[in-house]
Amino acid sequence: METTTELRSNNRRKFGVLVLRISLLLLILAPEKVVASKSPSAFVQTAIYSNKIVIFSKSYCPHCRRAKRVFSELKEQPYVVELDLRDDGYKIQDVLLDLVGRRTVPQIFVNGKHVGGADDLEVAVRNGVLQDLLGTT
Question: Which end of the chain has less neighbouring CB within 10 Å, N or C?
Answer without folding.
Answer: N
